[in-house]
Specification:
Layout: E1 5-12, H1 17-28, E2 33-39, E3 44-49, H2 56-65, E4 69-70, E5 73-80, H3 85-96, E6 101-107, E7 112-117, H4 124-133, E8 137-138, H5 145-182, H6 188-191, H7 195-211, H8 213-224, H9 230-249, H10 260-284, H11 286-293, E9 298-303, E10 306-311, E11 320-323, E12 332-337, E13 340-343, H12 345-348, E14 354-356, E15 361-362, E16 367-368, E17 373-379, H13 385-398, H14 404-432, H15 438-452, H16 455-475, E18 478-480, H17 483-489, E19 494-498, H18 499-503, E20 504-515, H19 520-531, H20 537-548, E21 557-562, E22 566-571, E23 574-579, H21 581-586, H22 595-603, E24 607-613, E25 616-627, H23 631-640, E26 644-648, H24 653-663, E27 667-669, H25 674-686, E28 691-695, H26 701-706, E29 709-713, E30 726-728, H27 735-769, H28 775-794
């Protein structure tokens, strides 16, 4: 009888007793599941199954098919000294293979492992133990993760710097003496002194076995776990030159001059490269650290009538927090007292200060400019806007775009392939190439093959560019949630814009005040006095315009509203009617010479609101949902990028087309309901367009999901609520061309990195095999290739959109 395993699965989505039977029935349908019992109170399912037939993904797929899911935990592990892509892949496979792990992603660029797991089957402690047992060092995260990582990075940089200078101390005199002897610059007595080779041995040995010790240790760990990495190549290449020289020194092989300077310089150059690489890799995560450093350390709160200064992390929801001019808001909240302005540019990218008063929301980590404020904390800890942004950026940096899959597949077999090429090179030079020093050439050329190969460049090509690109986007208020979204954004051919709230302000405003002899402000004052009692959006626009002009309103008497027609009231003894032209006609009132103006406004996509005073039409207002200041510029920028632009609107065709003409879009689709937008996106996709849908992220969610790329705009502090893979924190429509341009440039950097990594190995490995490269040059080239890839990615730190 086959062995039986048991899982305790935490089920989500069970809301009633009927759910129990449904979950049990669906789990039993998974081949290999022998029994399933569900406890509704604990929301757990106890499942007995044959592991040879059933697996956790099968159960999860069946549960999701039935409308349920598993409660899944996420672990974010910081790994010290993750050396190359082969190591990252080995750790990824190790973690993914643990029972209870649903997904594991390891990012070589930032040294992080992100794991999704079922907490009733495997724990974070299990993940850490498994990684440690395989030879990886998992950093403890007792404090802030970023602080732990920063300390570990500084410690590693200090270690590499120390090893580098020790290597230089021994290698420099060794290299100078060796080269001086080879070029005849030493006196003959010194050049042929028998003790000179022993001096070279004494200088090379500390470099080989102290400075280079980690290459042996890490290479052994990799081989013990069934894989090979860059450390294996370095250890083999440098050891070949070192031990061949020892054999010559001891007289075991014929010859006089060894290659001690070669083995020492190999390790020295790689140590220099590693030190520079650590510094460069550290800069790829600067954007996250800048965001984290925005948070103030302390906050002043009012508790029990006393003002207390406490760490920001200890602020609780409901606390009253005091902020003085020049200080930062500790957490998200709502102003309850005082007036000021806030600089929110570090979060939203919006440069203009935002006025704050009672009832206004404030964002944690932004700067209070002028007055003192008291606000009530509404979101603290991981719920704050800054924490959500940081989490989204970290998720994006941990994700892998599809383009990285090719590099991963090659990295998995790269080192064994290089070792095989080195063996073939050694055999060919030893047995088939007719040269007098065949053994020497065989060893040196095989070592050069091992040392020129660079798996790190392939492993760093994608994650470093994704880290810097998404981090730069976050600094500009553009949150790209995954590497996949980054790649898809670069291939967009058409952008569809939802009208309301995206290209328009989403709030009607008075655009025209026309009269046939009446004084404009007086007519507006009378109309606003009536509409002040109304809740209609058009009425609110009229009241807002009157207040903007600082007109004193009067209290209306006898207010009456007729749905869909208009409102009426008596103001200061005068009878005022406000409504449509049709309503005026129904009341027997002629338009009094304003009919042509009303038709013109309607042709411009505006609503014409007529005003009659004491039985005579005296004027009309043009009311429209006005365009955002940057809408036309954003669409022009998209056109310059070679993209088509379409407008989706629920308005009637005349209004939608009028707005479309103002904006200069290519396509206008009018009178569409939210659920019909999906069909429009699908229609364009069937015509071969790669569609980006831009909307508010709420009622446009189905269309955002259908498009190849969904961009949620103007979601403010609720950035994590948007389902779209790209979120623009502000309502600035210019963020759309910026996001697409940034994605294009990031993908271009990835392709450049991958091209360099591939072409470097394709050209230089054969060159080393045929004897055109010495091991010293090979080691130097390998170190420089990593630095080139990281440096190319770092160019994105200063990225700015083209004008």
């Amino acid at each position: 009888m086959a062995d039986t395993k048991q899982y305790s699965l935490p089920i989500t989505g069970m809301t009633c007793a009927d759910c129990v039977a449904t979950v049990e029935r669906n789990l039993k349908k998974v081949p290999g599941v022998q029994s399933a019992q569900v406890n509704l109170s604990s929301e757990r399912a106890s499942v007995d199954f044959d592991p040879a037939q059933a697996a956790l993904p099968d159960m999860l797929a069946r549960l999701r098919w039935a409308g349920y899911d598993l409660a899944v935990g996420e672990a974010d592990l910081a790994i010290a000294e993750l050396h190359d892509a082969a190591e990252a892949l080995r750790l990824e496979k190790l973690l993914a293979g643990l029972d209870g792990v649903l997904e594991a992603q390891v990012n070589l660029g930032n040294g992080r492992a992100r794991v999704r797991y079922v907490p009733t089957i495997v724990s974070q402690a299990d993940l850490r133990r498994a990684a440690s047992a395989a030879g990886f060092e998992v950093l403890e995260q007792g404090g802030e993760v970023q602080d732990v990582e920063r300390a570990a990075r500084e410690q590693e940089a200090s270690k590499q710097r120390r090893l580098m200078w020790i290597a230089v101390l021994f290698s420099a005199p060794l290299f100078i003496l060796s080269m001086s002897r080879d070029f005849g610059l030493l006196p003959a007595a010194l050049a042929h002194a028998p003790w000179l080779e022993w001096l070279f041995f004494l200088l090379a040995t500390p470099v080989q076995f102290y400075v280079g010790l980690s290459f042996y240790i890490n290479g052994y760990k990799a081989l013990r776990n069934g894989s090979a990495n860059m450390d294996v190549l370095v250890a083999m290449g440098s050891s070949a030159a070192y031990f061949y020289s020892v054999a010559l020194l001891l007289g075991w092989l014929p010859g006089h001059h060894g290659y001690f300077e070669t083995s020492a310089l190999i390790i020295t150059l790689i140590r220099v490269g590693k030190y520079l690489e650590i510094g460069a890799k550290g800069r790829t995560g600067d954007s996250i650290r800048k965001l984290m450093d925005l948070r103030p350390k302390m906050a002043r709160v009012l508790r029990d009538g006393q003002e207390l200064e406490i760490p920001s992390a200890e602020v609780q929801v409901g606390d009253r927090v005091l902020v003085r001019p020049g200080e930062k808001f500790a957490v998200d909240g709502v102003v309850v007292e005082g007036r000021s302005s806030a600089d929110e540019s570090m979060i939203t990218g919006e440069s203009m200060p935002v006025v704050k008063g009672p009832g206004d929301a404030v964002i944690g980590a932004t700067l209070n400019k002028q007055g003192s404020l008291t606000f009530e904390a509404t979101k603290v800890g991981a719920a704050t806007a800054l924490a959500q942004i940081v989490r989204l950026v970290e998720d994006a940096q941990a994700s892998k775009p599809p383009i990285q899959k090719l590099g991963d597949r090659i990295s998995a077999v790269f080192v064994p392939t290089v070792i095989l090429i080195a063996i073939v090179t050694f055999a060919a030079w030893l047995w088939f190439v007719p040269v007098s020093d065949g053994l020497t050439r065989a060893i040196i050329n095989a070592a050069a093959v091992l040392l020129i190969a660079c798996p790190c460049a392939m492993g760093l090509a994608t994650p470093t560019a994704v880290m810097v690109g998404t981090g730069r986007g976050a600094e500009m208020g553009i949150l790209i949630k995954s590497g996949d979204a980054l790649e898809r954004a670069s291939g967009i051919s058409m952008v569809l814009l939802d009208k309301t709230g995206t290209v328009t302000r989403g709030q009607p405003a008075v655009t025209d005040v026309l009269t046939n002899g009446a004084e404009q402000n007086e007519l507006l004052r009378l109309a606003a006095s009536v509409e002040d009692a109304s809740e209609h959006p058009l009425g609110e626009a009229i009241v807002a315009e009157a207040k903007a002009r600082k007109l004193a309103l009067s209290r209306p008497d006898g207010f009456a509203a007729e749905g869909g027609r208009g409102v009426s009231a008596e103001v200061d003894g005068r009878q005022v009617l406000i409504g449509s032209a049709r309503w005026m006609d129904e009341r027997g009132l002629g338009l009094n010479g304003l009919a042509a103006d009303a038709q013109r406004l309607q042709a411009e996509g505006k609503t014409a609101v007529m005003v009659a005073v004491d039985g005579e039409v005296r004027g009309l207002f043009g009311v429209a949902d006005t365009l955002k200041d940057d809408s036309a510029a954003a669409i022009a920028a998209l056109h310059r990028m070679g993209l088509k632009v379409g407008l989706l609107s629920g308005d009637n065709r005349a209004v939608a087309e009028a707005i479309g003409r103002q904006l200069g879009v290519d396509t206008v689709v009018a009178e569409v309901l939210p659920d019909q937008k999906v069909a429009e996106v699908r229609r364009l996709q069937e015509q071969g367009e790669v569609v980006a849908m831009v909307g508010d992220g709420v009622n446009d969610a189905p269309a955002l999901a259908q498009a190849q790329l969904g961009i949620a705009i103007g979601t403010g502090t609720d950035v994590a609520m948007a389902a779209a893979p790209v979120v623009l924190i502000t309502g600035d429509l210019m963020g759309v061309p910026r996001a697409i341009a940034l994605a294009r440039d990031t993908l271009r950097a990835i392709k450049q990195n991958l091209f360099w990594a591939f072409i470097y190995n394709i050209l230089l490995i054969p060159a080393a095999a045929v004897g055109l490269l010495s091991p010293i040059l090979a080691a130097g080239a390998m170190a420089l290739s990593d630095i080139f890839v990281i440096g190319n990615s770092l160019r994105l730190r200063g990225w700015k959109p083209a004008r």
